[in-house]
Amino acid sequence: MRLEIAPGVRLFVDVQGPGLLPDGPLMRELPTLICMHGGPGFDHSAFKPGFGALADVAQIIYYDHRGHGRSDPRPRSEWTLDTWADDVVRLSDALGLVKPIVLGQSFGGFVAQHYLARHPGHASKVVLSSTSHHMGLARKLAVFERRGGPVARELARAFWSTPNADTWAAYWAGCRKLYNTRDPIDPDAGARVLLNTDILLHFAAGEMQGLDLRPGLAHAQCPVLVMVGEDDPVCPLEDALEIAAALPPQWMQLARFPGVGHGAWRDDPDAAYPVLRRFIQG
């Protein structure tokens, strides 16, 4: 469905699982998990079908960020972290959600970090998965070189230093296979993604270049789970450790996945989904 979250602004939203379950003479309410996809410029499809494994412990809300995927096109002036972060609140209000669990994967983790800073009391829990707080180019290049040699390093350097259509095409063709450490469980997943390269290049060449999300993390007022694959080249382990260190210690939880790349549930679902399940239920 397309849901209006502000006058003239419609997001594509999909819901998996019930919010209420029969439990003897009562109806038991499940928590709501809002899943924010990566990119920028991608859509929510990468969460499917895998996240259905959690539908017995949470009602899952998938959506495409403003301007992305099946959501309505929006002007460049709205392609900002401020807008995307505030949309979590707008979406929750439109759906009548109170204290959702918010999960951000990769670029969705940028949005989730900024959401924590701008709306620290809104979520009941937050998951920051395979994400970074800054550009961190030197770290990216080191892992891409370790994983793919000097050619991969140069492709990554060219794109992240000068994002444009040509450097993106070369980078994605040469480096995408290095994001993960195992053959994909779902080899057709990439073909299903609706990609908006205009948004991708706009953000990568603009706001991302000077990004530093760490100061806002100190405002967190709920449990925050940081998930990281130790062999992730695009959001390296060191970035996740710095995110964890920037969070209030009483709220921070860290889950490291050895031998895993970008998106722990892609490379090691048997380890990743139980971690998420415990966090949701805990």
TrEMBL record:
<dbReference type="InterPro" id="IPR050266">
    <property type="entry name" value="AB_hydrolase_sf"/>
</dbReference>
<feature type="domain" description="AB hydrolase-1">
    <location>
        <begin position="31"/>
        <end position="263"/>
    </location>
</feature>
<dbReference type="GO" id="GO:0008233">
    <property type="term" value="F:peptidase activity"/>
</dbReference>
<dbReference type="InterPro" id="IPR000073">
    <property type="entry name" value="AB_hydrolase_1"/>
</dbReference>
<keyword id="KW-0378">Hydrolase</keyword>
<dbReference type="InterPro" id="IPR002410">
    <property type="entry name" value="Peptidase_S33"/>
</dbReference>
<dbReference type="InterPro" id="IPR029058">
    <property type="entry name" value="AB_hydrolase_fold"/>
</dbReference>
<dbReference type="GO" id="GO:0006508">
    <property type="term" value="P:proteolysis"/>
</dbReference>
<protein>
    <submittedName>
        <fullName>Alpha/beta hydrolase</fullName>
    </submittedName>
</protein>
<dbReference type="Pfam" id="PF00561">
    <property type="entry name" value="Abhydrolase_1"/>
</dbReference>
<comment type="similarity">
    <text>Belongs to the peptidase S33 family.</text>
</comment>
<dbReference type="GO" id="GO:0016020">
    <property type="term" value="C:membrane"/>
</dbReference>
